[in-house]
């Protein structure tokens, strides 16, 4: 963690130093020198206050806004400018061209990230996917599941209109089943207060089912008592059930159509450190009849390779968690560096994992990895 923080500070400060030493210092009045450093000072201050326990939403918004819309463009300019200077050792005027190109790249970066903050995080898409599986009962061929994930309603503030649009889109899809794969809040059950009525409108013929994500344990904040997080978790569970959702805590349900059935299995978050790992898959599977087609709800997609693939015959796993780091250009996303399976459909032998990019985020920003509602249609594959 310390090494990561040092590297992060270097990436934040070194571009500022390069631009200041090369273009600002000595060329502008003292006042403008001070103004130049204000965004970086504000970013560092907001990060420090957050790390010290100042968990106000505006702090994290300020930090990431300055990081992406100011610091990232400066980093892009610095890299292109230094490249031009390097080429300039052999090619005349390359340094000047590098500065011009660096400025253009910085402007494009700033514009893209600004769009992500202003509009991108609300640009919800319906992502339709066909899931073909062996062993699916014939009466479930064409079965429609809406998967919602990672709403992080605290980021919406009191903007109920945005969540109403999401709920309306889910209901318009007319699914047989709705599942929510974790991270309903950022850090507190109180975030749900403005949205209880809206979320309670979600319904489907076979019900609404949910599991917990890492944020739902409410550990990302400071408490005055040792049992603060536990009490918040209990309150969150109560609120989730009050919505009419069936919260699966290492347990299963059977969904029937005529004489056929499938098993819906839900585990608590099963993640790698520093994320909580409270999932108990054997317990969740207990009582599920052999040969039943199984759908697992597990927030963290790393659970699939760690336990689902090597130890079970679960045909379909639905996860979220990654958000694709809320940034994607083409097939590139920083999430690839941390997650082998970060978004979409993955298949090994007869087992499938589907990872939703989620509909929200801890930061009101998305670019490329647009927020999504996932409409999954199950199809039976001939044996």
Q: What is the ordering of alpha helices and beta strands?
A: HHHHEEHEHEHEEEHEHEEEE
Q: Largest sheet, described in full?
A: 6 strands, mixed
Can you give the helix content as a percent range? 25-40%
Q: What general form does the structure show?
A: elongated
Oligomer: single chain
Report strand %.
15-25%
**Using DSSP, what is the number of strands?**
12
Low-pLDDT sequence parts: none
Q: How many alpha or pi helices?
A: 9
Radius of gyration computed on alpha carbons: 24 Å
* Mean pLDDT across every amino acid position: 93
End-to-end Cα distance, whole Å, is 49 Å
> Which class do the helix and strand fractions yield?
alpha/beta
Q: In what order do the strands lie side by side in the largest sheet?
A: 1-12-2-3-4-5
What topology emerges from the helices and strands here?
Blueprint: H1 2-24, H2 30-51, H3 57-88, H4 94-118, E1 125-133, E2 144-148, H5 160-172, E3 177-180, H6 196-199, E4 208-210, H7 228-242, E5 246-247, E6 251-257, E7 260-266, H8 281-285, E8 293-297, H9 302-311, E9 316-319, E10 344-348, E11 351-355, E12 372-380
Parallel strand pairs: 1-12, 2-3, 3-4, 4-5, 7-8, 8-9, 9-11
Antiparallel strand pairs: 2-12, 6-7, 10-11
Helix pairs in contact: 1-2, 1-3, 2-3, 3-4
Description of the structure:
- The chain has 383 residues and is of the alpha/beta class.
- 39% of the residues lie in helices and 17% in strands.
- It has nine helices and twelve strands.
- A six-stranded mixed sheet has the order 1-12-2-3-4-5, with helices on one face. Strands 6-7-8-9-11-10 form a six-stranded mixed sheet.
- Helix 8 (281-285) links the parallel strand 7 (260-266) and strand 8 (293-297).
- Helix 1 (2-24) packs across helix 3 (57-88) and helix 2 (30-51) crosses helix 3.
- The termini are far apart.
- The mean pLDDT is 93.
């Amino acid at each position: 963690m310390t090494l990561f923080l040092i590297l992060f500070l270097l990436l934040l400060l070194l571009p500022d130093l390069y631009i200041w030493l090369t273009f600002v210092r000595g060329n502008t009045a003292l006042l403008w020198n001070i103004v130049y450093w204000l965004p970086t000072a504000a970013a560092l201050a907001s990060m420090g206050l957050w790390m010290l326990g100042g968990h106000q939403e505006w702090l994290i918004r300020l930090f990431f806004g300055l990081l992406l819309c100011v610091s990232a463009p400066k980093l892009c300019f610095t890299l292109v400018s230094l490249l031009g200077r390097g080429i300039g050792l052999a090619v005349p005027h390359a340094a000047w061209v590098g500065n011009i190109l660096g400025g253009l790249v910085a402007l494009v970066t700033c514009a893209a990230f600004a769009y992500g903050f202003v509009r991108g995080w609300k640009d919800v898409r319906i992502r339709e996917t066909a899931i073909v599986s062996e062993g699916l009962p014939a009466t479930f061929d064409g079965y429609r599941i809406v998967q919602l994930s990672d709403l992080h309603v605290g980021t919406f503030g009191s903007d109920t209109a945005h969540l109403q649009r999401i709920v309306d889109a889910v209901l318009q899809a007319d699914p047989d089943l709705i599942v929510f794969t974790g991270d309903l809040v950022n850090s507190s059950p109180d975030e749900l207060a403005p949205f209880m009525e809206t979320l309670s409108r979600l319904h489907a013929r076979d019900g609404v089912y949910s599991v917990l994500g890492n944020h739902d344990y409410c550990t990302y904040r400071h408490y005055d008592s040792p049992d603060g997080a536990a009490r918040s978790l209990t309150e969150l569970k109560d609120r989730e059930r009050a919505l009419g959702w069936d919260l699966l805590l290492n347990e299963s349900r059977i969904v029937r159509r005529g004489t056929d059935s499938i098993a819906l299995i839900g585990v608590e978050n099963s993640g790698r450190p520093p994320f909580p790992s409270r999932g108990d898959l054997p317990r969740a599977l207990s009582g599920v009849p052999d040969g039943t087609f199984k759908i697992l709800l597990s927030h963290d997609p790393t659970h699939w390779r760690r336990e689902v693939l090597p130890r079970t015959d679960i045909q379909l796993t639905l996860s979220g968690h990654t958000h694709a780091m809320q940034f994607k250009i083409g097939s590139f996303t920083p999430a690839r560096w941390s997650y082998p399976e970060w978004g979409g459909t993955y298949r090994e032998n007869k087992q499938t994992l589907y990872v939703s990019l989620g509909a929200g985020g801890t930061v009101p920003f998305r670019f490329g990895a647009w927020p999504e509602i996932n409409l999954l249609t199950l199809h039976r594959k001939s044996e």
